[in-house]
Sequence to fold (323 residues):
Amino acid sequence: MPNEIGQETLERLIRDYRPYTKQGAVAAYIPELAYANPHALGIAAAGADGSILKAGDADTSFTLQSISKIITLMVALNDCGPERVFSKVGMEPSVDPFNSIVKLETLDHKKPLNPMINAGAIVIASLLSGGGSVDARLQHLCDTVSRITGRSSIRFNEKVYESERRTGDRNRALAYFMKSTGIIDSDVDVEKTLDLYFKACSLEVDCVDLAKIGLFFALWGKCVESQTDGTCSTKEIVTPEIAQIVTTIMITSGMYNHSGEFFLKVGLPAKSGVSGGIVAFSPNRYGFGLFGPAIDAAGNSVAGVKMLEELSRSHRLHLVSPH
Fold:
């Protein structure tokens, strides 16, 4: 059994790996994200016993960006079922950048390769288009995140949303192309779908929130709730089967086109966002939330990935391990 993670472990990770923030850069192509401190670095760990540890800039708020894709995928699977979802989006990893249009034009089935690239996430957002306004559907997502994290309310960052909306022409191209090929249904309002997508990416969290989201998937769709007597219980939000699907997609596609390398070195299901956030987890044990806005060319936090590599190695967390 791997040794337990302590407060001193997280503080050492922050101290040892903060210099790696100099090797990345903030995601300036979304103008509002360019204001982030490139040297910020935070980490939190949530245990199955209800414990929470954090270090560094763990209380700093940031937007989910592509981490929102695991939430929208989970909600779509819960609302529509896997058959409907995967009739519109594939299950295969991508070697192309997350905002590429190439495979949409060249593959015979025209489906996005997976729900973690932008095209796939936009399709997933279109599946949430029935029954209510954009704000009502966004609230459905916010309520889900609130239940998982235990926060009374989850809000989106208006400035980041506006920044994404103004600069989102590539995403508009993806969406309208997919509507032209029938992947997005003909009765779907593309602009409303994009609005939902941009707002979901702009939801604000911190490292502790991400750690709790990670723990939720680590416990196969259950969130930990503290009781008045000091004990903890779990409450199921989605079925283990849905959590398993999302977990598998995270392993194959959660770290953009570096997912294979990441799983080889770290061996944990994870999802990153270009704001610098990473959610990861050790099944049945821990959820992790990291924040380091200096990202690499693929869109992953440079220092965040390095911390997860060290954590996996030192605590033998890799899912494919001889130990």
